[in-house]
Amino acid sequence: MKNYRAWLLGFTAFILLLLGATLAYAKLSLRYEQDRRNEVRYVTEQGAAEQAAAEQADGTGEPNPEEQTAEVVDFTMLNAEGETVAFSELLGKPVILNFWATWCGPCQSEMPHIQEAYEQYGEDIGFVLVNLTDGKRDTMDTVKEFVAANGYTFPVYFDTEKKGAYAYGAYSIPLTYFMDAQGAVVSGRLGAMTREDLMEQIQLLLDGEEQMTGSHAAQ
Questions:
Q1: Which helix (H) or strand (E) holds 163?
Q2: Following DSSP, what letter does each residue of 185-209 receive, concatenated?
Q3: Which of 12, 58, 126, 166 has a 20 to 30 A CA-CA distance from 72?
Q4: Could you list the residue range(s) of the whole structural domain that residue 195 is in?
Q5: Please, what is the average pLDDT of the chain?
Q6: Which of 46-50, 91-95, 102-106, 189-193 is least confident?
Q7: What confidence category does residue 72 fall into, taking pLDDT thresholds of 50, 70 and 90?
Q8: Lowest-confidence region among 56-60, 73-77, 124-128, 186-190
Q9: Domain assignment of residue 194, yes or no
Q10: At what angle do helices 105-121 and 195-218 cross, to 10 degrees?
Q11: How many domains does the chain divide into?
Q12: Residue 157: which of 184, 167, 191, 208 has the closest Cα?
């Protein structure tokens, strides 16, 4: 009887310890995810704040190119031919930087919208679709097959070393940054975009580029 009670007490203590560890892990996981979301929010809000400050720098409400600076967060990735490409090499016009994976349902839901936007604005905006290529769920070959099977023609790059994910905090996907021609973040979206969301952000990019071009021409 004593042995049974001792076993019962030990088993109960083990269950309580297991429950406590599970709750602690869940709490830490939620805190970690919130920290990552806050980091993404900070980056996008910081970009918007810098843009607003630049627009007010000359007191006219228009962008002031002399006051506007862009600190490009650069990283390297592979293109479809397996060649190393730096993100900074793709600048020179407004850019849509999107992090995704084939196993991500929300990523799949927004890709037809991205394809439509690419067909319409591919000459005016750089589309940089960065796949989180972990070598297991996504490999370069399986991603290429996925893209071809769906008829997507936008440029796809492969983040095989997680350099892009680390540089831009892509811990939750899809994650999209909208950037000006110098690589400064204008805005960002965490989660799947609707067609309306995407087109609205594209119009803002084009309007901003037109204002910048007009400012340079006026000088």
A1: helix 163-167
A2: EEEEEESPPPHHHHHHHHHHHHHHH
A3: 58
A4: 48-218
A5: 79
A6: 46-50
A7: confident
A8: 56-60
A9: yes
A10: 40
A11: 1
A12: 167
